Structure formats: C-alpha cells, structure tokens
# Entry
Amino acid sequence: MSRRIVEEISTGSDSDYSRWISWFLSSKGNEYFCEVDEDFILDRFNLTGLNNEVANYAQALDLITDQLDDEVQEELRGSLDAQARLLYGLIHARWIVTARGLAKMVEKYKRGDFGRCPRVLCQSQSLLPVGLVDIPYEKSVKLYCGRCEDLYSPKSSRHGSIDGAYFGTTFPHLLFLVYPTLIPPKTGPPVDGPAGSNTSASDSKSRRRSAREELPDVTGTESLGEGISTASVALKAERYRPRIYGFQVHETAKLQRWQEAMRDRQVGKLEELEARGG
Amino acid sequence: MSRRGEEDNISGADEVMEEPEEQEDGYTSSTPTSTLTWISWFCSLPGHEYFCEVTEDFIEDDFNLTGLNSMVPFWKEAMEMVLDVEPDEDAAKIPDVSIVESSAEMLYGLVHQRYILGRAGQQSMAEKYESGIFGSCPRVYCIGCNVVPCGRSDIPGVDTVKLFCPNCNDIFVPPSSRFQGVDGAFFGTTFAHLFFQNYRESAPAPFWKPPPSGGASLSPRSASGNRGSPFVNPNPYGGQKRAAGYVYVPRIYGFKVSERAKCGPRMQWLRLRPESPEQLDQVDWRGRWIDEDEYEDDEDEQDRQMEDFDPDAGDDDDDDEGDEEEEEEDAPSGQQHGQRRTDGISAVAHAVRTLPSGTRQDMPVMISLPPATGGKVKLVRQWTTVQPPALTGAA
# Structure
C-alpha cells in the first residue's frame, strides 16, 4: 500500500521518496516530525527497549531503513505500516532530545512548522510540540507556547490525532534549556517572527548564529545565554482585563490582583537568588 | 453556467443573490415564514455564525440607534436593506449595491453590539453558547470550556472578533480564518463579561482545590476533578460552576523544571487560582500582600520613591526609617551593615525555602506559603537583636 503512495507522490516531486522516512515526512499530517538521522536509527543502543513496544519490531525497523524484503506478504504490509509509524515515532521522541535532533527542531520552530499560539496577547508566537505522557496510546500531541508557558490543542484534527509520545514530555523544555537565546520575550512581537523579518538586516550575523546552533556540543550555546536574566520577565507579560462598560469586573480584578501578587512574590524571590548568585 | 461566466465582474453581487435562494429552502422547512429576511440571511452567511438575530422592533426603536447614524454612511438605505423595506424611487442615485451592503453590515453589527447586552440578546446568545456554536477554549487545561465572542474595541475597524474563555479569563484568535473578516466591535468589549454576570452558573469559580490524588493530576481529564463529589463554591454567593484549575508544570525527564533555571516557569501565576476567598483577601487593592513582610526592604524603598508626594505616607514607614537610622549609628559602616543584613535575610529565606522546594511548583505548596513566611519573619526579627554569626550558624 505504501509502495503505491510512494509512486504517486514521486511523480509530482523530484525529491527522493523511495526512502520510507522521506515518504513519511512528506505525507499530510506529519508536518510536526523531523528527519531522524539514519545512523541514529542504526545504532541499536538508541533503540533499547523499543522491541517490547512495537510488534513485528524487526520488520518495522527494516521498513523504516528500507531494507525490507519484497517477499513480505501483502496482508502483513498494512499492519506493518502502522507498526513502522509507531516505531519511528518512538525513535523520534528520543532523537529530538539529542543535540542534533534539537538543532533540527529549532529550524522547524523558527519556520513556524508547529503553528502559532492562539492566545491573542502572544502575538502569534511560534509553538513547540509536546506530549503529556511518554507512553504511547495515552494522549495526543499538544503544543507548548514559550511565551505564555501554556499548552494548546492543535487546530487541525489531523495533528490532533498524532500520539504525544512521539514528541515526549521533555522536548520543548530541554530545547529552551539548551538554547536560552530562543526563550521568547514576554512582550512585543516574537523574535522568530513572520519569516524574513530579521534575516535580511543582519544576514552574516544570523548565519553565524545559526551555524553555531547547529554545533552538536552544547557548551557553545550555553555561554551565549550567560548574560540573560529571566528573573523579572513575567512583569512585562501582557494580560487581558475583562471590562464591563470600561470598568473592570470586580471578582476577576480581585483574582488578577492576587495572581499578580503571586507573580511579584516569585519575581522578588528570583531576583534575590540572582543577586546572591551573581 | 455560461451566465455565471459572463457576470464575473459582479460576482460579489451574484453570490449575494444566489445565497438566499439556497438558504431559503432549508429555512422554510423549519419555520412557517416563506420569505427569508435580510437579517436571517446575514446571520446564516459563512463566518457569521457568532451573530444572533436582532429583532426588528429593536432596530425600529430609534432610541436603540442613538448616535449610530453618524457612524454609518448611507444610513437610510442601509436601514431599508436591513429591515427589508422596499427602497424609494430615488434610490437609483446609489452607484453600487455593495456600498449599501457594507453600510447595512456595519449598521447591523453596531446594533448587534447593543442588542446582545439586553435581556433578549443575552438569552439568544446563551442558547448559542449552550449549543457550543462559539467553540471551546484551545487551552488544554481549560478542558473544552465553551467560549464567547468578544471585541477588543467598541469602535469598528480596530480589530477582528476574538473569543473569551471564562475559565482562563483570556482571549484567543478564532480557529477558522473565516472569522478574520468579522469586526470585533460587532460584539463589543462588554458583552462577554456581562454574559457571565447574568449566567453565573456558566462561569467557572475563581477558586480551585487540587484533587487529593496528586499523581493523577498529569492528565487533564482527572484534573477536572472527581465528578462524584458535588462542587461547593468557597464563595457561597458566587453561584459559579467548578473551575478547571490545573496549571501546566513543565518537566524534563519527569523532573519539574526549577524556577531557578533561566528557562524555568515564569507564567504559572497567569492561570493560578486560590483555594478560598481568604487567600484572595490577603492581597490589598494595590495588589500587595497584607501582613507579609517578606520583601520589606524592597517594598519600603519602592514606597519612598512612589509616595514622596503623598503627605500621609503612613506612620509605619517613618518608624522603619527611624530603626534604620539607629542601626547606622551603631555600626560605623552603615552601608556594609545593611548589605550584610540583607544577605543574612536571604540566607534564612533560602534555608526556609529549600525545604519545600521539591514540591514548590505544585500549587498546594505555593498556596500554603503565607504561614511559612510568617515563621520566617520571626527569624528575621530575631536577627536584629542577635549577633550575625550566631544566626548563620543556626541557619
């Protein structure tokens, strides 16, 4: 079945769709996935334990790596495709928390492949996929906004049916831990912004920065974020205030004052910690 | 088919002519009226699902239209179109029907903004709300709470319609692009909030108590609370329903991301709910904690900067200043002493805080902070009388 689709797509485009991974990534609904390097898949250490999660593990792996014998029966192929998807998803969850995998997802993040935050005051902040649990077949994928630090459901139903375990609970938070420069500002238009806004201005600079981000070792990027302080960023965050004929609603206003007092308490604590640390 | 091809240049008007005919068939089957009014047609257009039908007698009452005639061009023609009145003979002077159409849309939208604030309008919007026509909140932990349309301005042409979620008190972009053409002013800034004042049982309470089972709180479904026990609003006069109060906690390999990390959580306050009205009352009208001296030093400094112009800045501040002066007299290097003093405080604060830090980001702990800080304040007070080395040794 998959072979037939491969042929259909390959007529329309000149990319290499003979590989299973390329076909999988280009099919509709799989826009959130990035390409896992073949040597990562071929290293059996990275697949530890997955043989218990996936039925027909060996053949599914062969299908992903395009080493499947053509003699496999047709009735097996249908179920094998589902198993290969599951296996690829679980490998993907492990891959995107490696240095190279993170770098690939950063590129997708900057392109806005995961969509934009629906919260009005986040000003179309780019989102990141996240799972609520790391076990497959439990919860579908959600989207994490680094600006309001909240979770949203994907707009499209074809993304809403993707398993959250294919991205894992760790990924977006590890990304911002490794790339602190990518932590979105709490106010103003997003830095990654609509495409082309900041690339033309400082081309060489951004190229140099992206080159450094592609480096597998983490230490280079960590020193970049050394000077950033995020202790009091929450004070800049905008929020919506419900009003009736221009007057704030009492109960909501009281709740919001309390929430902001909680925020101020955290900011005070973090600033104190920072002053002691630095 | 050929006719449609010829009239490409006025395809807009063509659509307008065709649509009502299509709608009419469906419409007549459900209601006895044989002809479709302009209002029904307008509300049935794609992208106009959020509008409710304004009654004609509301539009015919001039009092309800006060001030609108200066905002809508071709007022008379627009009124005739909205109310399906046969146009006068001299209507031929209007160059294009589409101009009157946009005027009629503006007129209807602005009347709609006023209508949905009234009893009848609120009721018809409530019916739409109950049937979920406005959609639900995209935020995962609002667990599909229904939203209402909301404008960011009452003046047309400023921004498109948004959706207000009563659970997270935030506004969102409608999921479909067909609402990008709908003006937010046609719903106004007031409607959403007046609606939840009128229909209290539809609004989630501002209080939330986490369910006793802590481990299950990861999944949104269990976070909605155990359905078995009926919800008791901590505010007996509130009348609201149970809130979906779980706040997302970021985790790396199962461990909560510390707020001391640069990428640590900074925005949880935005969705946080207190457990009881008493906790709300701990914050005064200026948004400051009452009876809490945790950041006394910082706040006193802010007070002096901000309230210099205020003649009665408060006797407490004066007393504090007096104390500090005495200390400066005692110690020859007043600056250093002050610096060491804050160090001592933060050391104590750290010692106190490191205890619950593991569960810190969990809300029950965060909420139960005030008593803990009360204990710490005593330590700080002790300090001023005790020698510094003794305290650091104790801490």
About this structure: The mean pLDDT of chain A is 83. The longest strand of chain A covers residues 127-130. Strands of chain A lie at 127-130, 142-145, 150-152, 243-244, 247-248. The CA atoms of residues 159 and 267 of chain A lie 36 Å apart.
